[in-house]
Task: structure prediction
Amino acid sequence: MKFLSSHHPLSGHFRAALQREGRLCGSVPISVIATYDAKISTICKYINSEAESNFLIVLSLVLRAASKLDNLVTSVDEQLSLQRRNPLLPEIIHALVDRESRLSESLSIEVIRIPSSVEKTVEPLVLTISSNGYYVDVIAQELGVNEASKVFISGTIGKASSDMRLYYNAPECLLMDQLSEPHVNLASHDKGSLNARASYLSGQEVFGDAILAAVGYSWKSSDLFHEDVSLRTYYRLLVHMMPSGVYKLSREAILAAELPMAFTTRSNWKGSFPREILCTFCRVHRLSEPLFESSIDLAGSCKKSKVQSVKKDTNGAPVTSSCGKSTGTIGDFKCEIKIFSKRQELILQYKPKESYKKQTDAMQSSALKVLLWLNTFFENPDMTTETLSSSAEKLGIQFSPDIFSKKFMFCQSVHKFGSTRHQSSKPINYSCINQPNNIVSDKACSICGDNSEITPSNGSLACVSYSISLVTEGEFLKEHIESSEAFEFEIGSEAAISRLEAVVTQMSVGQSSFFNMELPPQEFILAAAGDSAATQSLLSSRRCILEYAVTLLQVTEPLEERMEQALFSPSLSKQRVEFAVQHIRESRAASLVDFGCGSGSLLDSLLDYSTSLEKIAGVDISGKGLARAAKTLHPKLNRNSSAEVPSNETRSVLLYKGSVTNFDSRLYGFDIGTCLEVIEHMEEEDASLFGEVVLKSFCPRILIVSTPNYEYNSILQKSTSSGQEDDPDEKNKPKFRNHDHKFEWTRAQFNHWASDLAERHNYDVEFSGVGGKADVEPGFASQIAIFRRRDSSLKNVELEHHYESIWEWSSDNM
Ligand code: SAH
Ligand code: MG
Result:
């Protein structure tokens, strides 16, 4: 009696059972007992570890236990339910039913039907539960069976706190006596009706059609608890099963955000952190918590500390390590990751090659690597084991193909990405306006608004507002899908879908842009849509596309630029340009090539001065940078000659795409070559290779190379210590000015590189710089080497074209 009036989730079922009609009065389904009695399921897992994923085992164990109590309980009509052998007195039932009848009105609950055939779409459904009805009976009827004992119930789905479960029919062929056998023979029954989507969501085998509903009795109240489950909820659950989906959901930007390719800095990372995403991924796929194993290299010695990530904090809990700072050296951190199934089979192991200055960075980067690899599989679950293995091997991931494919066997039928991968979506609808020549490959994009000249570049944070609609072709019908007032993402790490990032890098602050895209997988659209049902009907009836409208609100520049602007007046980059201009003028050069011209800041400024330059060329490896360069140079070159415009001789401007470590004879023997703040963006070997190629093959008369002076960083960091990194133990450690820098040299290192190079190729070299002073420690902020060729003759070179000509302007066209 006491139990019957308590708030135990099961007692609600007992009370409801007492209201059932006729012979079923007081009979409680075994599946309900097995599901809602936590003690029972724990005991069952002890008895048989497969009980976790096989509900039949739990049922059979409960049934066997019940048969030993046959003096107390009995089963009705050989159904899978139990009843007291001695029914309760009618007065008692009345008292309980009275209590219950406070809930007088009938309830309507939105639920979802997941058909067993993946060909059939998932659909919404409304359950009506009358005031004295038993909700499991109502679900049973929807499933086409007459009463509750034929309904099986899954474990909870989604968030741990939710009470969303799947309801499905007990497999027909199962009889009581079959279940009471000590070993349920699963193989014996028909797996043809296996419901892939429902099995995938619940991590256990579900047969036939299933109903997804959030309803039941809780510890909190004796009333029936219920929540509507919409189509959108269902699709969000599916998206939540994907590594990139967890990220997209954490940013509330399903159609705009993409799991970034790199963990650059903590401050630039938006949304859930990689480690957290990996933990969520493992939880929803019912794997054990991933194991993170950090190690520190201290002059060869390597100590390990294990962390099982049990804490639910956001930024990666600090790992306490046995190697302190006592030795005074900075440790190199690496973080290994292992993922096990619930039954402790090793599914995946990642051994990183790179090491990091910070322990949290090592952990986050490793988690991200694993996630990105998993994501390639989830977006293309049809990929062969060979492809999967070779991509894993490249990254340093070991996995067991057998366990892996068994664990994720349903992906193939559930996540149908195939060729509709977001990234590969082709722009359609040609409506290009206002683009300088043909450099911009995204022709189907229109950008409007004045050019404010504040443009995002790699490493900067772009803040945009956007709105995405589903439109039927011909634009007759339009359904709003997703929007954001302020969506911030880091440029260069693919933190937004590639097309959005490509468009934003073409824009300047204040401008807006419109473009269309082919549809991504439907689950993304339906998970994002406010009204999934309306969207689903539109999608199924017409050919649709997605229309994006984006406005660039703000650009936060990378740390390097922020420091340079805050500390120097004019800014350090302006000082570099002025330094170069001064040398160009003094040398009376007629031709200039800017190696690593980026978005053309030097070329652009040069046009503001009067110089003797006739021919100007820029080379860069980044197509995006070159596109921006063309965009700013184009209007400047075509402006009408008026009094304010300095007179210059410029006849042609060329932009080439290629690596400056390769030679191209079209740029041989120029009067002056510049290479400002570029070498530190290459690996050190490549920087040396560039040195060789430029002096040996390109042979400019003068070459100006600038790069940060590492020794100056302490000053930069002091002045901006309140800035970027909020991590106290980071403050005293020297670090690079920009996360894209592969190295930064001290004065001695730079002098050594330049002097040695000059000597070998018959050049003189002198050293200078901008920002600070040569004779005041720690020297210039940007150190500069000026190389001058000793011998003035030029040789004939063979034609060798290794660069792609991207854009060309010549005064003849004017
Ligand atoms: N010189 C410009 C840009 C500096 S940023 C300025 O002073 O503003 C560094 C540039 O070097 C980037 O645009 C990057 O794309 C380019 N870069 C890096 N490695 C390169 C390579 N191997 N070949 C050509 N360009 C390279
Ligand atoms: Mg740089």
Q: What stands out?
A: The first strand starts at residue 28 and ends at 29. Residues 307-330, 418-442, 721-734 have pLDDT under 50 and may be disordered. Residues 119 and 413 are 10 Å apart (CA to CA).
